């Protein structure tokens, strides 16, 4: 159990989403000093553990996605995490951890989710590429990729066969719960994951095995 002990660590969690809340709670339960923030400008060091969970959803046919929609999605889902990661990397020492929450649509697309999927696809590759830059600094970075979760009821029209695939194709036949994110975040932030970086772990009930 010592690998899940974060005593003496300073953890910063960026975001106001359910994943951000549960990760902050999990870090605190594991013994870390936790600072939950909502803007990149609030980030201060030193930082041992950094987690970011910002997310804005939009589902429209690509012809109906306005420049304003696109800019909002890219800002909330990619630019803010990018800016945060860039800043935090200068405030971390060796054996530090970053955990970035993303979505499985960054890996597998669905109709009418082109802009949303693209914004998270950028995060997937940001994790993979920055892991190579951060490794010589002793900083690891990994992702948690979510599927259909309990707070996403307003995202999908269950009468739409295409949209409904996110529910029907989840192998465990239920929505994920926020509390199921925290333990993985703690593991990725502790000593057990010291040799793990550049990876993206799906918490999706098996959705990507069927989607």
The Rg value, from CA coordinates, equals 17 Å
Shape: globular
Helical amount: 25-40%
| C-alpha termini separation | 35 Å
Beta content: 15-25%
Number of beta-strand segments: 6
Mean pLDDT, rounded to whole units?
92
List low-confidence stretches.
Answer: none
Structure in words:
There is one protein chain. The protein is α/β, with parallel strands linked by helices and 211 residues long. The protein is built from five helices and six strands. A six-stranded parallel sheet has the order 2-1-3-4-5-6, sandwiched between helices.
Secondary structure layout:
Elements (H helix, E strand, L loop, with lengths): L9 E5 L3 H12 L3 E5 L9 E6 L14 H22 L3 E12 L10 H21 L4 E8 L18 H4 L13 H8 L10 E4 L8
Parallel strand pairs: 1-2, 1-3, 3-4, 4-5, 5-6
Helix pairs in contact: 1-5, 2-3
């Amino acid at each position: 159990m010592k690998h899940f002990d974060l005593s003496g660590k300073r953890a910063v969690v960026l975001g106001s989403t359910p994943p951000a809340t549960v990760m902050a709670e999990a870090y605190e339960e594991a013994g870390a000093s936790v600072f939950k923030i909502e803007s990149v400008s609030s980030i201060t060091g030193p930082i041992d553990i950094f987690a970011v969970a910002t997310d804005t959803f939009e589902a429209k046919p690509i012809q109906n996605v306005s420049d304003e929609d696109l800019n909002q999605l890219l800002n909330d889902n990619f630019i803010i995490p990018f800016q945060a990661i860039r800043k935090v990397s200068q405030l971390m020492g060796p054996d530090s951890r970053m955990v970035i929450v993303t979505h499985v649509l960054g890996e597998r697309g669905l109709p009418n989710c082109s802009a949303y999927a693209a914004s998270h696809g950028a995060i997937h590759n940001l994790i993979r590429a920055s892991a190579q830059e951060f490794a010589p600094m002793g900083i690891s970075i990994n992702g948690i990729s979510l599927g259909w979760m309990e707070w996403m009821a307003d995202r999908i029209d269950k009468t739409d066969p295409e949209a409904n695939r996110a529910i029907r194709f989840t192998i465990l036949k239920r929505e994920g719960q926020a509390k199921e994110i925290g333990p993985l975040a703690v593991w990725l932030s502790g000593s057990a994951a010291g040799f793990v970086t550049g990876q993206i772990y799906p918490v999706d009930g098996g959705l990507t095995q069927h989607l």
